[in-house]
């Protein structure tokens, strides 16, 4: 076919509102089908876009067979083994963040992609929304940064909030560290360099603070939560260095458009053979950093006698 065929795994709100509309609207690909763990949900989403619905083990194999690439809108630890399986079937990967919440799971995906020679992109929204992506690129090119701070304070679980994303079991279990932590790291690592050391602390409910040292010599701090008071919620990144102060632009634009840009990035990587900066290896690195933070917080909770999972939100 002239246009690559891309299938979708997942039928939840993120798939319904972002992934499926972006795939259907993209004039450079064919939306080849959708797979869901619940057959009725797969049928509903497929019917909305006039494509084939799949479910179960046989459905997975069928979707992989009819697709050149697959996009994922699944919980991370459901995504990881299926992504490794898709890569082994020769499908390029358009992954959601985080790739997995265990280093082993993320590494299995990265190794499968490398073994099969497939391209990959991890959809870290900031790196594909136009204004924020340009800002990250500009600050990375400047260099000379001394320190930085990022905060992602969501009110998803604040009293009175009603969001379909709050129904996600993995998000409630893992909290802000894993849900919005990848966003913060994806904006800090390009201008400051890879993380060489991390110190993590957590207070309830779901407030995580990270102190990071970077290969450039810069230090940064990150504050993360999904349970901030509504009036105190907000996001931001600020860099300080020899060029002065740089502040991340507010507003990420339409996520459907940003996901369309991620599709473009995957197609370009397939065409050129050049890995994208946000490929599965970068996704693996994010998982390594976040897993180290989680491990520290679990150890601190155990030492304090509050239980092995109380600090990380995961037993």
Short structural description:
The protein has helices at residues 13-25, 39-49, 56-65, 76-88, 103-116, 130-142, 169-179, 181-192, 255-272, 280-303; strands at residues 5-9, 30-35, 52-54, 69-72, 92-96, 120-123, 145-153, 195-203, 207-214, 219-225, 234-241, 244-247.
Question: What does it look like?
Answer:
With 315 residues, the chain is α/β, with parallel strands linked by helices. It has two domains: 5-126 and 255-277, NAD(P)-binding Rossmann-like Domain (Rossmann fold); 137-249 and 288-303, 2-Layer Sandwich (Dihydrodipicolinate Reductase, domain 2). Helix content is 44%, strand content 23%. The chain has ten helices and twelve strands. The strands form two sheets. It has a six-stranded parallel beta sheet with strand order 3-2-1-4-5-6, sandwiched between helices. Strand 1, helix 1 (13-25) and strand 2 (30-35) form a beta-alpha-beta unit. The protein is globular. The termini are far apart.
The level 1 CATH classification of the largest domain is Alpha Beta
Q: State the end-to-end distance.
A: 47 Å
Q: Largest sheet, order of strands side by side?
A: 3-2-1-4-5-6
The Cα radius of gyration reads 19 Å
Question: How do the strands and helices of this protein lay out in sequence?
Answer:
Elements: E1 5-9, H1 13-25, E2 30-35, H2 39-49, E3 52-54, H3 56-65, E4 69-72, H4 76-88, E5 92-96, H5 103-116, E6 120-123, H6 130-142, E7 145-153, H7 169-179, H8 181-192, E8 195-203, E9 207-214, E10 219-225, E11 234-241, E12 244-247, H9 255-272, H10 280-303
Parallel strand pairs: 1-2, 1-4, 2-3, 4-5, 5-6, 7-10
Antiparallel strand pairs: 7-11, 8-9, 9-10, 11-12
Helix pairs in contact: 1-9, 4-5, 5-10, 6-8
